Sequence to fold (520 residues):
Amino acid sequence: MARTFKEALQSGDFVITAEVGPPKGTNIEEMLHHIDLLKDKVDALNVTDNQSSVMRISSLAVAHLIKEKGGEPILQMTCRDRNRLALQSDLLSAHILDIHNVLCLTGDYITVGDHIDAKPVFDLDSVQLIQTVRSLEKGKDLGGNDLNKPVEFCVGAIVTPEADPLEPQLLKFEKKVKAGAEFFQTQAIYDLNKFKDFMQYARKFNKKIMAGIVLLVSAGMAKYMNANVPGIFVPQDLIEEMSSAPKGKGLDKGIEIAGRMIKQLKDEKVCDGVHIMAIGKEGVVPQILSAAGIQK
Amino acid sequence: MIVAERKPIEEIKKMLAPYKKILIAGCGTCVAVCMAGGEKEVGIIASLLRMAFKMDGREVEMGEITVERQCDKEFIQPLADRIKEYDAILSTACGVGVQFMAEHYDTIPVFPALNTKFMGSNEGEGYWKERCQACNACVLGETGGVCPVTICAKGLLNGPCGGTNKGKCEVDKEKDCAWTLIYRKCEHLNQLDKIREIFPPRKYSLSTKPGKLLHEAYLKEEEQ
Fold:
């Protein structure tokens, strides 16, 4: 990438990020293919951290590979698997590997994943992790000790605009702002009117907000998420639109819907960008961008 | 109170396999209240073991005794003479009582009949819930009397995670989200400002194990 993610955010352009999920095992062929396919089409690529509490290659290693390939990684860091020593150590490591974007997350609980008997760490929470990065930037670690040279990061966090109940989530959002988050990627949104209400509230904090776009591949997936994924609500008209797709064309319909939503968010300047999560279908992100009328 | 639950009888039987004279020692306080290890449960365990040993064709002599508390010397010292008659003790106390007995009577093996679960409250007949982690840094005054360290599965101090839904926890949809409870309670008490403050990382040094406490009134002069 010609410019850093921070520069992209500051440019005022509509910013696009997508996601790379490290695999379980050492065959990284498919992941490298996705990185090659996406790195020049987006402003940055998130790298997930043992997503869904499933053990995989570390986000730090993959962020490094993206950097080596000339891409711009956003290192996702959860508080589930590392205590404050390990988290700070990895932040220093990220810096020396020229990785300067970090997304601070709590992390799913251990028992939703594939090592249910592991010790859940959660030594810090996401707010404290943001504070930690900011402290390391001032040259101090959490023990109050001096670093011989500080780190530099563009710090992000997540927010769920359609959480139920919403107020406790907004309390946390405001703490993340206070702790020093510069940008937010949201949980998947589908109801643009509701999202506009959230943006009206969020705008006053003057932080960059990127709407989460999760690619729908079938009506069944939409219904499943409505029933099982916290903070995701796919409206009935979109479920019907997905159902209307001819057999075998669900993915095409999902791409069309995602493209249409991104175009509307961009044209109406609803938010500062989008974060596209095409879970397991990373290869179609360029098609989503084309459908949105975005060419890079 | 401390809440415990009896181990499966098969597991208890396996631990006691080498012994012929077993004293089942009950504890009359917490574990009696939670119906796991009081006098009544000692009787039940003895009956179950008798049947199990009989089916295996084994002759085992079993005694039963229940003291007020196994975590207190005053109550376990009187057992000294009785214990001499046995070659193993099955304690139905919590882990505290089992260890205290094992330390006090160090010539005879002491086995646990229970798994100790948590410190909790009685919520109704036969129903207990965990309430405290003994973190040694109580924040209940800031969080509307709801403990984020215990009630939140992740022990989060600064608000809910993204996994909460409709006031329930991502770990177990039957369990309440601590931060929804905290928010609602603080809203009700007009104390939301308290939870708008960022809580700093917890000081785990305060709960380095094993904890100990010597009441200041009992400190020796030179230690004061």
